[in-house]
């Protein structure tokens, strides 16, 4: 069976079946809006965080988690009920500040991506299939990439060396990466010779097949897709990334997704350095309806994460998502901070963190690659989250990251809605790139 036929059977028929099911069982518009109630849904927005705020000094990194006041934004009951004191002198107790903040107290604050979480979270009335999400989210890349492929194929009557040279330029322009492109062109040339393909039209299908092969390499799909979970207790995800890549928004969307799957989720506001970061995460917690553990601005991130673990354990949470600061201008400070946070997590929960997820802005192209290389040097990144993939025409960065850094892409942002964070699937990705060709495909 041809590769386009496989993708068509898997994704196009899935969409057709979904649409047929909707026609047979129209949903009641009054049901299933998926909204999460929040007393703060109609609040007025507070003034935006000014970009001209004076830079604050970095908090000292040589101190162990100190006795700073911590606040759980959904804390209820007495301090004794919600906090477990620890005798370890390296991690002192956590006295709760007066004026514990409830879910209705936070004012919307513009996040690091320029988005403002607005009111209660609302899901779309009708669930989209994975295929439709990737098709819609990769529209810009597809329109650019597919048109160039079609133009190339139309200008050649046979597959020769000049054809492959121009194909190389097309792939590089999509930010697939020079190293990955050279490897792919070599494999394409071998495959074309092996199959004795002369018609350039037939090469399009081979290109799509090789994109999937290069992404997975020698790994099985199950080994690189999805997030690792702790079967024996609390699962901890540590998020890293520079400011402005959509880290806060991604954490909020992931919290919503996990909660919708029936998991109890808590957040820890470990980015105590950037102005407004704590308030932004707290606002996402309010909107999604999950607990947020925070300290005051400038506090030790390791102490925040420690309190987050204790709060999560006391509430019987399934997942704790930890935010961190992302200042790359001083790699030594960043490395020290992340190392300290990881030590605290590992000591409290052996085997954690279960994922260290680096958030990258897909619209920055090769700059995202340089960020990934830097973070890979200072911490053990286990997976990539590509935000704003719907906003770029250079979605090939997915393949460059996977192939050159050998780090799998775990999640991708395919739109602005809270439900547009998807588990990365290489087959769905390639379908999104070649959707028009695949849907028009008719087997000979």
UniProtKB/TrEMBL annotation:
Q: Name one Pfam family in it.
A: SRP54
Q: According to its UniProt record, which reaction does this protein catalyse?
A: GTP + H2O = GDP + phosphate + H(+)
Q: Which UniProt keywords apply?
A: Cell membrane, Cytoplasm, GTP-binding, Hydrolase, Membrane, Nucleotide-binding, Receptor
Q: Main subcellular localization, coarse class? A: membrane
Q: How does it sit in the membrane?
A: Peripheral membrane protein
Q: Which CDD domains match?
A: FtsY (cd17874)
Q: Which domain of life is it from?
A: Bacteria
- Alphabetized Gene3D superfamilies for the sequence: P-loop containing nucleotide triphosphate hydrolases, Signal recognition particle SRP54, nucleotide-binding domain
Q: Spell out the InterPro entries in the cross-references.
A: AAA+_ATPase, P-loop_NTPase, Signal_recog_particl_SRP54_hlx, SR_rcpt_FtsY, SRP/SRP_N, SRP54_GTPase_dom, SRP54_N_sf
Enzyme class label: hydrolase
Biased composition range(s): Basic and acidic residues: 54-71
- SUPFAM superfamilies cross-referenced by the UniProt entry: Domain of the SRP/SRP receptor G-proteins, P-loop containing nucleoside triphosphate hydrolases
Q: Which family does it belong to?
A: Belongs to the GTP-binding SRP family. FtsY subfamily.
* HAMAP family in UniProt: FtsY
Q: What is the name listed in the Swiss-Prot or TrEMBL entry for this protein?
A: Signal recognition particle receptor FtsY
| Gene, per the UniProt record | ftsY
């Amino acid at each position: 069976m041809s590769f386009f036929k496989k993708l068509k059977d898997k994704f196009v028929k899935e969409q057709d079946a979904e649409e047929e099911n909707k026609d047979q069982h129209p949903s009641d518009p009054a049901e299933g809006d998926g909204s999460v109630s929040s007393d703060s849904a109609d609040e007025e927005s507070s003034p935006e965080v000014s970009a001209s705020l004076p830079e604050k000094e970095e908090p000292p990194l040589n101190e162990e988690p100190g006795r700073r006041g911590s606040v759980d934004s959904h804390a209820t009951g007495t301090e004794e009920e919600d906090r477990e004191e620890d005798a370890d002198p390296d991690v002192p107790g956590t006295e709760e500040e007066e004026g514990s903040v409830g879910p209705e107290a936070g004012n919307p604050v513009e996040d690091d991506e320029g988005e403002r979480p607005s009111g209660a979270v609302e899901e779309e009335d009708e669930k989209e299939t994975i295929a439709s999400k990737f098709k819609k989210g990769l529209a810009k890349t597809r329109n650019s990439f597919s048109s160039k492929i079609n133009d190339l194929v139309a200008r050649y009557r046979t597959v020769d060396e000049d054809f492959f040279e121009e194909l190389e330029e097309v792939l590089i322009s999509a930010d697939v990466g020079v190293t990955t492109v050279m490897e792919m062109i070599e494999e394409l040339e071998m495959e074309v010779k092996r199959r004795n393909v002369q018609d350039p039209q037939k090469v399009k299908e081979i290109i799509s097949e090789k994109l999937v092969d290069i992404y997975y390499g020698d790994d099985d799909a199950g080994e690189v897709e999805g997030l690792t979970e702790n079967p024996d207790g609390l699962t901890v995800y540590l998020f890293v990334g520079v400011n402005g890549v959509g880290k806060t928004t991604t954490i909020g969307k992931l919290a919503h997704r996990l909660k919708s799957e029936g998991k109890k989720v808590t957040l820890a506001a470990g980015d105590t350095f950037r102005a407004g970061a704590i308030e932004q995460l707290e606002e996402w917690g309010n909107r999604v309806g999950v607990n947020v553990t925070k300290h005051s601005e400038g506090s030790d991130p390791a102490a925040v994460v420690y309190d987050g673990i204790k709060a999560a354990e006391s509430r019987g949470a399934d997942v704790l998502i930890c935010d961190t600061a992302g200042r790359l201008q001083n790699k030594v400070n960043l490395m020290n901070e992340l190392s300290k946070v990881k030590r605290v997590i590992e000591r409290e929960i052996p085997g954690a963190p279960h994922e260290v997820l680096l958030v990258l802005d897909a619209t920055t192209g090769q700059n995202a690659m340089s960020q990934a290389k830097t973070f890979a040097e200072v911490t053990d990144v286990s997976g990539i989250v590509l935000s704003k993939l719907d906003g770029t025409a250079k979605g090939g960065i997915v393949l460059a990251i996977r192939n050159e850094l050998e780090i799998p892409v775990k999640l991708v942002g395919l739109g602005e809605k809270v439900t547009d964070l998807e588990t990365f699937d290489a087959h769905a990705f390639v379908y999104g790139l070649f959707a028009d060709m695949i849907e028009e495909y008719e087997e000979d």
